[in-house]
Design a protein that fits this description.
The structure is a homodimer. Chain A has about 300 residues and is of the alpha/beta class. Helices cover about 35% and strands about 25% of the residues of chain A. The longest helix of chain A is centred in the last third of the chain and has 19 residues.
């Protein structure tokens, strides 16, 4: 049995590889997923991983199958490095910046989109999020404002239509993980972290972070002191740590948040927490469907060739 | 051969155990060290560790040998928990708050000093630093102001004579270690970290932290971006990370720093870095001899019994 598609859209992240077959009318004809993320592959293993994922898929028009890839496949430690575009830049230029690895098995023609960097004393990089931002711009023509992309390395980007003006990265998600696993705070974070105290701890931590983002190095230790002195349980402590970090991130980006809702692109659970903290300062967040966003971004990138 | 002393002063930390034999004129008659810090001992191993360290030491006055201990031996996971005094409190009350484990081997009479805690929405704890603060007060009668104790968990304490008014803890040293070892920043911090670029990176990081302590979660990621985009070497990145964390700590405590020099109690290398960053904001730091400070604190604690 074969699947016939017009082209293939791929999001190749650090942990996962996701592909969608796009029919000639733009609809999604098939979806395939694999755990072969960039982080698990050596450079020479990328072609086989893609070929395996796309077994039995053939192009409607004959010839080779176009595969448009965003994400970590284009990183230095990925398949083939796709040099960054430098912000400020118009994301309609993504396809022009793509790199093209050799044809795979004589039948698959891959193109890897670039990430976006920022220099001039504000060094920063993104890979994958630029395609999501283009997707947001395509789904919401004329949108202008800040976009928040919560995650391991949260991004805050200022978008004007398809143009990315400026962005920053907050190590919020990774900080939660390394502190929970490797710091003295782990003693307060062992046991049931999802108990009923988590929501109360989250609200308290978020309030502290929002109020004094400059005190993070100090407030973090209160997770430990709170369990030693006030008998705070692991679920409360986990909520406090999570809230404190997200509150600090949002508090430090407060000057970017205007009157309109902040689009949130990330996992639904995480976006809901960010929306909750935004509401605490009288702002609002608008969680997006991340899959729709990345698909819209890959389609838009493909449509803007020079 | 036996050593004859009046009493024994002990600093029992997480990593190390240090003892000084004090002669009847107050001078140090002997010094002994061991790697048997609290972190390496089960509760029932403390008596033997102390007895072994003090083999052959006898009291000048006959009877049992008084041993006054500060630090982690009094922690919940230590020898015998010494409940915290609660700040604000007069540190002349430390000995009254001491706990007394059973006499060891019929010849050693240990007393463990309490730590100090803080409650009322600013939960915090210290163990060991309170004795150093009393030592500073003893060596500098009448001193009033903020004291900085750099380390894994840096303390900032407001002292008025022998009274501790308030304190906070910054997880600066531990943050450096967990980020260097376990976060994405480790990719930028492998190789020679002590090369000539370290000083330049330190100054740049300190300036960034001092200027915008609220941006720590974001500025941290610039360590990684700087090595990807600007070819920053591991020594520069290590200096930047260290400077950024210390600059953030000092920047967030700026409101506590007045016109007088801030006493710094910690390792000489670390105190020199803190003094350098304090100078960047027109303040000054005054590194103390940490051994003299803790000895003075144990002597002072012993002299103030109810």
């Amino acid at each position: 049995m074969t699947d016939i598609v017009d082209w293939i859209a791929v999001d190749w992240g650090t942990s996962n590889l996701r592909a969608w077959g796009i029919a000639s009318d733009g609809s999604v004809a098939l979806e395939r997923n694999s755990a072969k993320g960039m982080g698990k592959l050596a450079r020479d293993e990328f072609p086989a991983a893609l070929s395996e994922l796309l077994a039995g898929v053939t192009p409607a028009h004959g010839g080779t199958l176009d595969v448009l890839i965003c994400g970590m496949a284009g990183a230095r430690q990925g398949w083939l490095e796709a040099p960054y575009l430098e912000a400020p830049t118009d994301l309609r230029g993504l396809l022009d910046g793509a790199v093209r690895p050799d044809i795979v098995d004589g039948r698959i023609a891959p193109a890897i989109l670039p990430g976006v960097c920022q220099k001039a004393g504000a060094d920063n990089v993104m890979r994958g999020e630029e395609t999501q931002l283009l997707g947001l711009a395509a789904l919401r023509p004329g949108f202008s404002g800040v976009v928040c992309m919560p995650g391991t390395h949260s991004k805050w980007a200022q978008l004007s239509g398809t143009r990315i003006e400026r962005f920053s990265t907050a190590m919020t998600g990774e900080m939660f993980e390394v502190l929970r696993t490797h710091s003295v705070l782990r003693h307060s974070l062992t046991g049931d972290l999802d108990g009923p105290g988590r929501a109360e701890g989250f609200a308290a931590g978020a309030a502290a972070g929002l109020e004094r983002p400059e005190q993070l190095l100090g407030t973090l230790f209160q997770v430990r002191a709170g369990s030693l002195l006030s008998g705070r349980q692991p679920d409360w402590c986990a909520g406090y740590l999570s809230g404190l970090l997200i509150g600090t991130e949002i508090g430090s980006n407060r000057h970017l948040i205007g009157g309109q809702a902040v689009p949130l692109i990330g996992s639904p659970a995480l976006c809901a927490l960010y929306a909750q903290v935004l509401a605490m300062i009288g702002a609002s967040g608008e969680p997006q469907d991340a899959t729709q966003i990345v698909l819209a971004g890959l389609k838009a990138a493909r449509s803007f060739a020079a």
